[in-house]
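Task card 7
Instruction: Convert sequence to structure tokens.
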Amino acid sequence: MSEDSQNVSYVYGFTRAGGAGMQNADGAGVLSGGIDEMHLPVFSRSGEVAAIVSQVSRSEFCGLTGETNLQDLTWLAARACRHQAVLEQVMRLGPVLPARFGTLFSSPASLEGFMRKHQAAMVQFLEWVGGQEEWAVKGFFDQACAEAQWLARRRSEEPGPTASSPGVAYLQEQGRRIQAKRALDDHLAKACDDLLNELKPLASEIVPRRIVGRETPDAAREMVLNWALLLPTAAVADFRSRIERANANQNTTGLAIEVTGPWPPYSFCPVLETEPPPAPDSAKAAP
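Output:
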């Protein structure tokens, strides 16, 4: 079997053809790294779009070896970071339509056909996200801490008479806890709505992401909001200032807002029809 037949095309994403850093036919030497640190990424052009692609060994991702690798968290984490690092380089050159980790095409011809088929959708997306970045906004709530603070304030504001029996004292305390839960639920809903209204004017689009459960059953904080924002680069400084103000306003209520970014615009990518599932011994193609 020839070396070419043992390789497949690993695609990191797509960008505008002829953009900055792509003066050469394939942009060779512009990008560093790569999914396996042996085959540098290059640009493969088709019309107005270019794929960012490396040739990789078929066995790394397919067959028995591939199945073993894809279940190895150490192997996955290292290559996911390399995938992200390549996209970050491309983001500095221009807009990018990111591909999922592990996107493979069985041949340059199959990749070329995919790009021709989806040319219009890709061009439209790249025009839309030009000059914009994806940012993640997550909110974490410490229920126990917030409840303790609420109860302490209520006791100091309304000390009231000492209960005549342990049973009465218990019922009074349970009543306060029910009040605390209702008050904190209302506060949390309002705080999330207020933050969303604060950020909407800045973002081209905001989409909700999956709320992830606690890392461990006894973890102090739980995620209560998870949004992806597509932000014009010029709005990022204002966005970060608004997050800082929101955190300052919530610093005694157990709610903490965290942001990460900029990311490739994964959350806003169009759905592109893929090839039929390949045979077990061939590479898969999935954008």
